[in-house]
Amino acid sequence: MLIQIEISKEFQFLIYLIPVIIGIQISFSFFIRYHLIQDEDLPLNRILLAFGSFLFFIIIGPLFIQIARNFLPEGFYYDFFYRIGWAVAFSSTLSVSFFITREEFSTIINIKYAKMMMILNFLSIIFVIFSRIPSFLFSLSIFFVATNGLYIIRFMLVLIKKSVGKIKKNFKKFFIGAMISIVSLVFATLVGLQILPPVINEFFYFFGVSILLIGFMIMAFSVYDFPPFYEFNWKKKLQKLFVIDKIKMECLYSYNFKTDTKNNTEKRIPQKNIDDLLPKGIIGIESLLSTLTDSPGVTIEKIKKKDSHIYLRSGKEFNFLIFILMLKEDLKSASYFIKAIRDQFESFFRAILMNLSEIREEQTRIFHNFNYTIENLLDK
User: Fold this and answer.
1) Bridge partners (DSSP) listed for residue 326
2) Whether residue 250 sits in one domain with residue 147
3) Do both 144 and 291 map to the same domain?
4) Integer Cα distance of 66 and 84 in angstroms
């Protein structure tokens, strides 16, 4: 038997499908972006999964509620879709809590408190599935979710404060968009509970959908060209970078992260013989390792000294190059960062590196232009 519904409700549902379609596309954009920049050395990139999951659940939950409200008569199926809708909506904050309870975020939030909020949020889902709506347990579940939501807002504010460069701008965009979208949940809750007169209920419905759409559009800008999330205060731990020609035992390029800023890199004269003899020492260690193991392809990737950590990468396309990154403290993201430097350097100077032996011009001055690329990487 066909269910008769009001034209206004049909129109309401069609209007709601606009932010639903846009929101699902944005949520999958976060998942795709995570896949594109996924790296085992950058665990904080999982924040993209948190953002995508939050969006997905906050869209699908109310969608179930709208299907029950507009298309199903009172009964088992109505109750099933209605409860599932609330449970999925409550999962939006739970999914964020699941990702931010990682040890990497312990420097900016209390992980134990975050886990406690996650447990309460999970209990709210149990309550909404097995309790009456409305009821005391249902109200308590809303309180738990709201409390966790406030904690996530605090987390986002600290995250923005601790971040730098381009990623900070992306976090700000997502936070603003999310806050606008969360406001729409207030209207969705009032409409879903059906405690308002029909005219006011419809007004709140369309107003809430409009706010939701605005929030989603702002979040769409945040996912565009989202940079890799290295670590907190990672720039302060960088010391020096060297690009060495292993055959000639010469330094083609060097960068001092403490002194080479945008204001003075143009004035600094690049040197072939650097004052720090560490690069030659590292090359010697690599040669020794290859001799002992009788495996020329074996390379050292990390050396720990008393006052520094040293990461090494051989050239990917030009194996006569060795890239050396010195850090004051160890970074989990250092491996990814030096790979990015290597790929950019080989791509930018590919034609020059292919004919390096034929170039008579002072080579260090040619590669000095790579400073701009380093500065762009640091701005992310």
Assistant:
1) 240, 310
2) no
3) no
4) 11
Number of H helices and E strands in the chain, helices first, is 12, 5
Identify whether residues 218 and 253 lie together within a single domain: no
Phi, psi angle pair for 243, to nearest 5°: -120, 115
The CA–CA distances, whole Å, from 132 to 139, 328, 370 equal: 10, 58, 65
* Domain at 325, CATH number: 3.30.450.70
- The token pair at 129 is 């599935």
Per-residue DSSP letter, 358: G
pTM: 0.73
Q: What pLDDT does residue 252 have?
A: 86
| pLDDT-flagged residues of the chain (< 70) | 1-8, 38-41, 188-189, 191-194, 260-300, 359-364, 380
Angle at 124 between CA 118 and CA 127, to 5 degrees: 150
Residues 157 and 199 placed together within one structural domain of the fold: yes
* % of residues, the chain, pLDDT over 70: 81
Yes or no: say if 187 and 211 are a contact pair by the CB < 8 Å rule: yes
DSSP 264: T
CB atoms within 10 A of CB 34: 20
Residue 236 sits at the vertex; the CA angle it makes with 270 and 302, to the nearest 5 degrees, is: 75
Same domain, 37 and 184: yes
Give CA separation, 128 vs 9, 80, 193, 237, in Å.
Answer: 25, 11, 13, 47
Rounded Cα–Cα distance for residues 272 and 243 (Å): 11
Q: How many domains does the chain have?
A: 2
* β-strand pairing of 309-314 with 250-256: unpaired
- How confident is the model at residue 277, as a pLDDT? 45
Confidence at residue 226, expressed as pLDDT on a 0 to 100 scale: 84
β-pair partners for 238 = 327
Tell me, yes or no, whether 1 lies in a domain: no
Quick one: pLDDT at residue 223?
86
Phi first, then psi, for residue 51 (nearest 5°) are -65, -45
- Can you give the pLDDT at residue 264? 52
User: Would you state the structure tokens that stand for residue 344, as one six-digit string?
Assistant: 């950019």
Task: Give the H or E element holding residue 352.
Answer: helix 350-354
Instruction: Name the β-bridge partners of 321.
Output: 245
